[in-house]
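so my prof wants the structure for this chain in the tokens format not the other one, which i didnt know existed until like an hour ago. anyway here's the sequence
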Amino acid sequence: MTAGRMLDNTGPFHTLYNNTHLIIALALTIYLALVRRHRYRRMIEIGRPFTDGKRELSSMTTKEAHAIMAQLQELEFPYAFAKARQIALLKAGGIPTMSKLFAATGQNNRRNAGKRAVDTEILLREAQSKSRDSDRYATAVARMNYLHARYRRANKITNNDLLHTLGDGLAEILNVIEREEWRELTDVEKCAIGIFHKNLGEDMGIPFDQLPSKAEGWKDGLHFAMELRKWTISYEEEVARPTATNDQYVRVYIDSAISALPSFLRTIVRQMLSADLDKIMRTSLCIESPNPILIMVLGLVRYFRRLFLRYLALPRPPFLAVKLVHEMPNPGTNLYNFERKSLQPWYIRPTFWSKWGPGALLVKILGGKVPGSRGDRYEPQGYNLMTIGPEPQKGKGMEEMRSDMDIIRTRGVATCPFSQAKSGNLK
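here's what i got, hopefully its the right format
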């Protein structure tokens, strides 16, 4: 009797087996419905306080802008924000006065370029990820100010160069998201990005005199962001020209970083970087145009990535947030460690995972160093925001920084940057 039931083609197990495709289709439909329901929820929540005329964008506070920036770079578009920082750092070398300064400082060489790039990345990440009234934001910005100060006094860094650097950071965030991400930024999100960059510009002492609305002030962060982006593009068109120091900057910043790769891979990497630049900056940086086949491949990868994220991927949950910097210092050194961003392991804490994990093994195959290589050469104990930077400046500028930090923290208590008609004026 039992054997007969097992061979019965009308039993429940046979029915379930025959309808497996229906179950899969139903599960897929439910999943796609979940994606459709939740994919845009974060965007809607970010914009809710300002939709349907509830509030003007000019009423957005610095605290609200920071919260929006955190969601965008940690949860919504971590890839785009990381890529934007890298492109902006590369494009700095396409401005002849900047590349000339990099060459004159002696830091733009194969020995120092890796650390200089990581130090700059860390200072930007600290400023972007911490609230304006926090000690870490104030320290990171004060350190940048100190490292720039003597060159500004000697007019080797002009105000226009600094405004371009600030604007390029903003512009590349917008560019990468528009070009590669699964959705566009809303006006509310652009407003938050504009507020962050205006605050950062003020804290760095960058005059906004070149922007058209400086005299009467900007309506809101969106207005400021669009005006700064437009000016940045115009400035590049005006001054970006190929020079020997521009070429040297690329050869050190890019070529030395990928020197361990096979020749054909080095060519592909350079062309991939070239594909992210417009013709003006590509020419100024002396980088060859990308191969048409590579352009097609990159276009297809971006297209399918957008489709996947938009229709098949659930939004990133908070517990998987991509943190820009470590929240807590290394308990053994009281310094902050960093995650690997290059073939050189600067500030990376030697652990079993960081030395033998899949990412570490790949880096080793590509010619990179493991954390702890050459003793303290790559400072595995971590970084100190009060001393980070070129070796000749290490330990210098403490008093100047403390005074600057007090001023920055005082500005950090401001609430609505665009609530005053003359908000364009520096405080």
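also thought this was worth mentioning. Residues 1-7, 421-427 have pLDDT under 50 and may be disordered.
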